[in-house]
Amino acid sequence: MTRIRYLILVTAVLAAMILVALYWSGLQGSFFFDDGPSILLAEGVRLETLSPEPLHQAWVSGGAGPSGRPVAQLSFAFNHYFSGFDPFAFKATNLAIHFACGLLVFALTRRLLGSVRPPAKQANLLIASGAVTALWLLHPIQLLPVLHVVQRMTSLSAFFLLAALLLHIHGRENTSWRGVAWLLLAWGLFWPLSLLSKETGGLFPVFVLAWELTVRRSFSGKLDRFARGLTALVGLFLVAGLAYALSPRAQWLWAGYLLRPFSLMERLLTEGRVLWFYLDLIVAPDIEALGLYHDDFVVSRGLFSPWTTLPALLGLVGLILLAWRTRRSAPLVAFGVSWFLIGHALESTALPLELVHEHRNYLPVFGLLLAAGWLFMRALEGKGPRKTIGVTLMAAALGYCSLVTALRAHQFGEEVRRTQIEAQHHRTSARAQHEAGLTLAGLPGAASRNSPTYAFARTHYEMAGELDPNLKMNWLGLIHLNCQAGLPAKQADIDELSRRLRETPFAPGDTGVLYNLKEMSIAGSVCLSRPETDAVFAAALANPGVSPGIQAILHSWHADYLWLHEHDVVAARSALGQSLALNPSNQSNRLKWAQLLMISGERVQARQLLQALSNGYFSADERKTLDELLATLNMTAH
């Protein structure tokens, strides 16, 4: 036993070294995509001290999901506390979490493969478990939860879920009081931590149920009282959840479809093809098909549009039948297939999320690799060609996955390289084309109207607008590109931006267009006149899909522009007044109002408002501003 533990330890150290070597170039990359809203712009992440209040602010700083995913947000805050916003440190932490998940995958695989009857030789069990773990760690589809920093939410949730499942299995196989303690730890601590990292942790009871109904039943021969009770409880919660989803109270849940270019039915039809797309990427990773953006995936408008829609859905039914038919003869195959399907039950079914994201496979891929690991272990137990073929295929898979992962990590190590390769591999992705243009526009060469950099950036921006009729940010990019090159903004670009803001669906990310417009205007990097800027804001405010809450935000940003760029306090007060009329409880805007009162010479009213605000919650910067304003007013009063 001591020799086996020593061998496992040495192998783990070697695996960690290989993992770091493969990912090293990717760790040098920058933050990208939605790292900004959840990390760089989240005030609570800027943790400076480990006192209770800043830690609480970090805990509640998230805006993703119903819970805000506080465990992940707190981990980002600790990253900032120790290393600031150094992307290397954030990505290295993600890699460490990925490796820790790999250790749990090894422990879980070893336990699951060890439950097979008849039992395999210890050496073959260790080799098969190590091979499954290595594939899970090195597979290129696992890259984004490492190098896309915000996807730590995915890997942290997986870490706690895997730990909870291991503890559950350990507890169920231990009939003493210690077994109860393990179960309480699994369900009472690690499951909530998984759920508070990302909502996919809510699938833990269903994963447990799959294990109870397939693997445990295969060696115990029956379902005990615990398994029957869990089956009834999970079934009850699923029925209750479905009833709620169909009730009028759940309209907020489906409102997201108003902002999507597909309906609920179209999403359900498309996701059948999406799951087979994932399976293709898992079985035969294609570096050109892999990517951060998959907005180029064709939506299924009917069972035969495209024609692969119906076969894909029938194929999923076939997978379900496979799991059912093999539940006794090959329980690990049944469990592996079930694990994959359960892992996609939340993000790849009815919720109005985006259609395709590779990181959604971080946990589900384990099920397929486990089934492959069982077949590999059987091959090792055999002799002759079957063993040779099994070893050859596993070695080829490990070598190929390592190569593709290393190439992808190199791509993600530098922004121009990452975005240009992404745009080349996904030519019909509007997001990929826009980001390629944005990155080129940030290079010094883009400031010259005659440079290839300027021309290529403009081409990417224009292509993005052609690919997505609802995209807006690219038109602001074209305006900014001309301004920094010393050219006037094209009227056609301004008109098209205004038209899209006014007439096309206003997605959550479209607020960023107005935020960036006011920020760049204040910084002097956009050359629009005041009437042109006012017209762009007016176009967005005229969009019937913009809620009163978003209108309040847009009025507030317009006030910032009028105050800080145009120095028109009267107009700024008018715009901010409209914002406060829509949302009078917004503390940040009330603080802005106090500042405008001071500038207007209305110091008594300003002092009264600031004193009323002094006990409210503000960010660190806003609190500093409030204290300085009060101090200034108190000094002038004396």
Keywords:
638 residues; globular; 29 helices; mainly alpha; 68% helix; 3 domains
Description of the molecule:
With 638 residues, this protein is mainly alpha-helical. It has three domains: 2-31 and 85-409, no CATH class; 35-84, no CATH class; 586-638, no CATH class. It has 29 helices and no strands. The chain is globular.
What is this structure's SSE topology?
Elements: H1 2-23, H2 35-40, H3 52-59, H4 70-83, H5 87-113, H6 122-138, H7 144-147, H8 152-172, H9 177-195, H10 204-220, H11 225-245, H12 251-254, H13 264-283, H14 309-325, H15 331-343, H16 365-381, H17 385-411, H18 415-425, H19 430-441, H20 452-467, H21 473-484, H22 491-503, H23 511-523, H24 530-541, H25 548-564, H26 569-582, H27 587-599, H28 603-613, H29 620-637
